[in-house]
């Protein structure tokens, strides 16, 4: 009760300050555009304190601010809007909290676009809000293909990655490289089940087979016997679909099991560089996974990663970079449309071919709003090959944009 | 050596003791008789510092111990034998004996205890509560004798025991008396009380209604039995 | 057959963490009557402390196995002195709430300081590798964990049964009031016993560091299983905590092997069965007197 009142008071005070500031500036330059409240508000909605905090979390707000700075520097006086704000909220990975927060952000905080939203169920809840409110939503953090599939809508865009892309990268490539016989271990909830479906499809398409699957409780800290059991079937590859702390537990216990020495490899379905950073390269050495982006890809990404590191002290994950790119492309579209009107901005975004430090050969697909781009197959380096902090990945293959994501024709999306 | 003055005690609103004043001298055996619920146990719990809602004072050898915590009263020389005997199931017979610290020079040695109570010696490794009821009572009394306590507070030691064993307890009480120990004996068994005690207090509804020496007590035994409803 | 041997070792290794921590929980419950909800957080702190000490001063696992429990002993005594003590005279529910709150606080502080992704931990290479037994390679580290846990449990058992301190703790556990009336200053033992219980949780955490993800949340599910362990073994029973711990570890391992999705559910089924058959737990005594 009190908390809510404080928040309300705070936002009133802020609104007052902004009105005064607006008066002072006299509002001259806003190039004749058509803006609600004379400003653009970008809202970051993600996990600010839980398991996905390091993957994206508060640092994505800094990434978004960097996009705003770059936009303002690029357009200067030409910018169609001067007043660009970024706000953020914590959804604690709960769909119902995500739902109310999204409502608040759109209605009360005047958000023009919501960014990020990890956790598939939360992401889908926000997509529904975007559709109802007719406001933009660019998802970066969630993995479900539903966002661009059966539950797609005109105002929702999906950046960075999804289960199809992960399975296609890791599943297909590892299978084609000779890992034909798989055992899959997955957490028994929507994400894990989705991943198993996608991986099975990709592995079979690559000429391999999934000989067995093992569902584990979620969350869980003891995987020793699951791993032994998977190993007993003598597969060539064990694929794990776990994330966060569960993944770390599983990898530690896989290393313990001695299966590596028996030539049974571990393929990881979803991994972020923050996972490698927290556990150390030794633990993950040799692990193959699909990466949407890597900070040390080339000059362009590295330059951006240096700026990010100056602000945060850490190297960016692909979620941070994805949020930057999503914010930047949104602002570019606003610039082109001359308004923050959602329908006009969507028109600008749809079908646009994009290149930025995150999107390589990027295209914002009009049919299903999947943002496609080159993705990478990475292998975790051994300690001897690490030359600096966060130098963890060797890119072994670039998967071109048009092969990396589910074809629009198979999406099942109709808007 | 033990002097209790105007002791009143309450359970919440209900008063269980009303201004009880009594004393026990060195080498004296004093009984406290009274019906069920008269307040006898409450009185000894007050003396041990286990019941705290009270007024009045308790002195031991002239020293006011009214506000001392229980463990300090034990160390000052009060030896309590609880009405349910209070034998530790998780401790062996010998551990039950060794648990309380020695508090005076007159403390018994283990050998003395086992001489006096051969049944305990032969079962010294057994779990405390594997003993029979009578043996547990012996153990409880032996335990406070071993500490060298100088005033024993025995809460109905004869209850539920066979006559031979009650007689044995009488012997122990007399031995204790001879070595100068003061004994406050709570009893409903009036006949037994008459065989060991020097003086008697009659407690009714929390009030000490009479104080008798043993001769008067024996004389009025039938009347008292009736009063007690036994 | 080989698989069964592997599952057994895995079960006993997982059970080692449970047994050590549950032992601490049981001792604390016995003497203070406090259901220490923060035990999972103390386990987490043990692991985090080991990781931080390795990272900052290069302290090896060998040293951490001694130093961290000592630090946790001191920390536990402070917690008892500054917090738990004041609520002891009140309904035990208050200390349950206090330790629950303490858990939230500790977890959040660790998150704030060390993030949510977990900390790295490298164990000494002497504990790498596997030993061959009956044709299967058993991880040295798992055997080490089981060995340490058994040694510590044996040590605690000797302490409890062969020393005066142990005798006092047993007496105070069974009848605190009577122990006091027999001249034992029970209050004096409360602080060290709490610290000792916390140190055992910390030790379990150190042992878990090379084996489990070291995150602020690592104790959150652990404490739930621990409660199941002490209910199965018998609240406040020391032997029960140890037997219950290893038993639950085995149930977890064989559950994972033969009924993967139900591995955790099985633990609670076991708990329900034990409670129905013996409400006081396998080694618990029916309350003699209150
Ligand atoms: N814990 C308690 N709470 C409330 N009332 C109590 C409590 N203990 C005893 N009483 C009451 O105080 C009174 C005195 O009880 P107490 O146990 O001292 O009697 P007693 O003389 O020892 O009886 P008995 O011969 O049955 O042992 C009784 O009326 C009893 O009901
Ligand atoms: Mg009584």
TrEMBL record, chain A:
Keywords: Signal. Residues 40-381 form the Leucine-binding protein domain. Residues 1-25 form the signal peptide. The keyword Iron does not apply. It comes from the Bacteria. Belongs to the leucine-binding protein family. This is ABC transporter substrate-binding protein. It comes from Nocardioides turkmenicus.
UniProtKB/TrEMBL annotation, chain B:
The keyword Nucleotide-binding applies. Keywords: Amino-acid transport, ATP-binding, Nucleotide-binding, Transport. It comes from the Bacteria. The keyword Transport applies. One of its GO terms (biological process) is L-amino acid transport. Residues 2-230 form the ABC transporter domain. SUPFAM superfamilies: P-loop containing nucleoside triphosphate hydrolases. InterPro entries: AAA+_ATPase, ABC_transporter-like_ATP-bd, ABC_transporter-like_CS, BCAA_Transport_ATP-bd_LivF, P-loop_NTPase. One of its GO terms (molecular function) is ATP hydrolysis activity. Belongs to the ABC transporter superfamily. This is ABC transporter ATP-binding protein.
TrEMBL record, chain C:
The keyword Cell membrane applies. Coiled coil: none annotated. Keywords: Amino-acid transport, Cell membrane, Membrane, Transmembrane, Transmembrane helix, Transport. The chain crosses the membrane at residues 12-31, 61-80, 92-110, 131-160, 189-211, 223-251, 257-277. It is a multi-pass membrane protein. It comes from the Bacteria. The keyword Transport applies. GO terms for cellular component: plasma membrane. One of its GO terms (molecular function) is transmembrane transporter activity. One of its GO terms (biological process) is amino acid transport. It is found in: Cell membrane. CDD domains: TM_PBP1_LivH_like (cd06582). Belongs to the binding-protein-dependent transport system permease family. LivHM subfamily. This is Branched-chain amino acid ABC transporter permease. It comes from Nocardioides turkmenicus.
């Amino acid at each position: 009760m009190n908390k809510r009142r404080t928040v309300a008071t705070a936002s009133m005070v802020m609104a007052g300050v902004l009105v005064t500031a607006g008066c002072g500036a006299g509002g001259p330059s806003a190039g004749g555009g058509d803006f609600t409240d004379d400003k653009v508000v970008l809202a970051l909605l993600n996990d600010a304190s839980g398991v996905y905090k390091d993957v994206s979390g508060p640092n994505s707000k800094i990434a978004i601010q960097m996009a705003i700075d770059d936009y303002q520097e690029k357009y200067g006086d030409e910018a169609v809007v001067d007043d660009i704000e970024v706000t953020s909220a914590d959804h604690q990975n709960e769909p119902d909290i995500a739902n109310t927060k999204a409502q608040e952000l759109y209605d009360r905080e005047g958000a023009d676009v919501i960014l990020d939203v990890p956790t598939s169920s939360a992401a889908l809840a926000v997509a529904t809000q975007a559709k109802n409110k007719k406001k933009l939503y660019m998802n970066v953090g969630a993995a479900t293909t539903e966002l661009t599939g059966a539950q797609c809508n005109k105002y929702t865009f999906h950046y960075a990655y999804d289960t199809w892309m992960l399975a296609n990268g890791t599943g297909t490539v590892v299978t084609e490289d000779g890992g034909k016989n798989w055992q899959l271990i997955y957490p028994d909830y929507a994400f894990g089940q989705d991943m198993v479906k996608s991986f099975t499809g990709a592995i079979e398409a690559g000429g391999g087979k999934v000989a067995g699957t093992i569902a584990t409780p979620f969350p869980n800290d003891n995987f020793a016997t699951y791993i032994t059991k998977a190993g007993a079937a003598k597969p060539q590859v064990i694929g794990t679909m776990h994330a966060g702390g569960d993944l770390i537990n599983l990898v530690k216990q896989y290393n313990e099991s001695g299966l590596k020495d028996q030539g049974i490899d571990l393929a990881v379905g979803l991994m972020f560089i923050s996972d490698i950073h927290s556990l150390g390269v030794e633990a993950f050495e040799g692990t193959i996974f699909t990466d949407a982006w890597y900070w040390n890809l080339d000059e362009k990404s590295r330059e951006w990663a240096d700026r990010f590191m100056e602000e945060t002290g850490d190297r960016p994950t692909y979620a941070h970079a994805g949020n930057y790119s999503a914010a930047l492309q949104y602002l570019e579209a606003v610039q082109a449309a001359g308004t923050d009107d959602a329908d006009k901005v969507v028109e600008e975004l749809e079908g646009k071919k994009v290149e930025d430090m995150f999107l390589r050969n990027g295209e914002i697909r009009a049919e299903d709003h999947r943002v496609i781009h080159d993705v990478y197959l990475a292998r975790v380096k051994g300690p001897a090959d690490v030359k600096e902090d966060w130098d963890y990945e060797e890119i072994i293959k670039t998967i071109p944009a048009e092969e990396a994501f589910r074809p629009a024709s198979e999406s099942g999306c109709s808007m | 050596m033990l002097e209790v003055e105007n002791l009143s005690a309450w359970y919440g609103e209900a008063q269980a003791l009303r201004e009880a004043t009594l004393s026990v001298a060195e080498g004296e055996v004093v009984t406290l008789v009274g019906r069920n619920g008269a307040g006898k146990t409450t009185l000894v719990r007050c003396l041990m510092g286990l019941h705290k809602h009270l007024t009045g004072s308790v002195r031991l050898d002239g020293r006011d111990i009214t506000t001392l915590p229980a463990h300090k009263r034990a160390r000052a020389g009060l030896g309590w034998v609880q009405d349910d005997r209070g034998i530790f199931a998780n401790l062996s017979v010998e551990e039950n004996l060794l648990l309380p610290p020695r508090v005076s020079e007159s403390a018994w040695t283990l050998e003395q205890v086992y001489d006096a109570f051969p049944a305990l010696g032969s079962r010294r490794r057994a779990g405390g509560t594997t003993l029979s009821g009578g043996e547990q009572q012996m153990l409880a009394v032996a335990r406070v004798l071993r500490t060298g306590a100088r005033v024993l507070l025995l809460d109905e030691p004869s209850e539920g025991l066979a006559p031979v064993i009650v007689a044995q307890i009488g012997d122990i009480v007399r031995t204790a008396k001879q070595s100068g120990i003061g004994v406050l004996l709570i009893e409903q068994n009036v006949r037994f009380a008459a065989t060991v005690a020097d003086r008697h207090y009659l407690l009714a509804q929390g009030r000490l209604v009479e104080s008798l020496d043993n001769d008067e007590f024996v004389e009025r035994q039938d009347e008292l039995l009736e009063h007690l409803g036994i | 057959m080989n698989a069964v041997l592997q599952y057994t070792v895995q079960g006993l290794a997982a059970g080692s963490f449970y047994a050590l921590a549950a032992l601490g929980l049981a001792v604390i419950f016995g003497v203070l009557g406090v259901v220490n909800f923060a035990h999972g957080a103390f386990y987490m702190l043990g692991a985090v402390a080991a990781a931080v000490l390795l990272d900052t001063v290069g302290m090896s696992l060998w040293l951490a196995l001694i130093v961290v429990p000592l630090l946790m002993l001191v920390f536990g005594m402070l917690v008892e002195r500054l917090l738990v003590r004041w609520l002891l005279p009140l309904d035990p529910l208050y200390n349950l709430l206090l330790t629950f709150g303490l858990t939230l606080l500790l977890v959040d502080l660790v998150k704030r300081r060390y993030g949510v992704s977990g900390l790295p931990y490298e164990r000494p290479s002497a504990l790498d590798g596997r030993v061959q037994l009956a044709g299967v390679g058993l991880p040295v580290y798992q055997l080490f964990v089981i060995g340490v846990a058994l040694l510590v449990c044996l040590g605690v058992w000797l302490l409890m049964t062969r020393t005066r301190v142990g005798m006092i703790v047993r007496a105070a556990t069974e009848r605190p009031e009577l122990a006091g009336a027999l001249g034992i200053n029970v209050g004096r033992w409360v602080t060290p016993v709490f610290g000792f219980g916390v140190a055992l949780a910390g030790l379990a955490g150190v042992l878990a560091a090379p084996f489990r993800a070291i995150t602020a949340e690592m104790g959150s599910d652990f404490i739930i299983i621990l409660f199941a362990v002490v209910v199965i073994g018998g609240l406040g029973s020391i032997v029960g905590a140890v037997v219950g711990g290893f038993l639950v570890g085995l149930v977890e391992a064989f559950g994972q092997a033969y009924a993967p999705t139900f591995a955790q559910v099985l633990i609670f089924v076991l708990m329900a069965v034990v409670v129905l058959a013996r409400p006081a737990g396998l080694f618990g005594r029916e309350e003699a007197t209150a």
